[in-house]
Amino acid sequence: MLHLELNLARRKAENRRRTWLTWGAVTAGFLILLCGLLARLSVEYITTRKVQHEVTQARRQLAPLRQQAHGLEVWLSRPEVRGELHRVHELNRLIQEKAVSWTLLFQRLEQIMPGPVQLQALRPARQSHFTAVVLTVASPRVGPLVRLVQRLEQDNEFSHPVVVQQRRHRGDGEAGNYGGSSSGSGPIQLEILARYTPHLPPLSKTPPARMNPARARKGGK
Q1: Smallest Cα–Cα separation from 187: which of 221, 137, 149, 151?
Q2: What is the mean predicted confidence (pLDDT) over 89-109?
């Protein structure tokens, strides 16, 4: 048999170097990873501290505003203040109704109302942020009333017509439901709620001021 004898003592320094290089690379990688984690944690900690500081400052600034809002709510809940607000609301409503030109409104209704339809009553209605009117009209037939509603839908000044109530008067003066017997019945009456947005005519331009003849003669001299 062939026997080989190896003397590992001659490669002791080379093996030790390889071991140090291997463990050194592993240790360096671990240290780099640890430094990256520490840097990320530091950045997150600083960011969290900054956000917490901003939240604390915002809460300190909101505290007096909340107190003011609470005081304002308490003040608005007082009976005399609520009464004043109600009167202001009613005053604004009256001003809005006063701003409507009823003359132009009647003129517009005369233009769009079919011949057989008669206007029996007209009154303003309350709608938030809109001027509305309630028209009480009557006609012996249904067709003209349908045309009136269609014209109100297509008109530039009237919009969103809604039939609030409909009834048919009988010949003896009693009111019956719409669509009752046509024999011996009177006119059909409708109450229509519609928004009204008037288109005011443009303001006439003021003519230029005429020159005073006396001043013109003085200027000529």
Answers
A1: 137
A2: 70
pLDDT of residue 148: 92
Question: In 51-73, which positions are buried (b, 16+ CB within 10 angstroms) versus exposed (e)?
Answer: eeeeeeeeeeeeeeeeeeeeeee
Instruction: Calculate the CA 130 to chain-centre distance.
Output: 14
At the topology level, CATH places domain 101-196 in Alpha-Beta Plaits (3.30.70)
- The reported pLDDT for the residue numbered 157 is 84
Query: What residue type is 126 in one-letter code?
Result: R
The token pair at 200 is 């005011």
Please tell me the predicted confidence (pLDDT) of residue 197.
79
pLDDT in tens, 159-191: 889 998 888 876 544 444 444 434 446 788 999
Answer for the pair 167, 179: CB distance below 8 angstroms, yes or no.
no
Closest CA to 93 of 60, 130, 52, 67: 130
Any idea what DSSP says for residue 179? T
The C-alpha atoms of residue 116 and residue 108 are separated, in whole angstroms, by 17
46, two tokens:
């600083």
Q: What is the pLDDT of residues 20-33, one digit of tens each?
A: 788 888 888 888 99
Beta bridge partners, 12, equal none
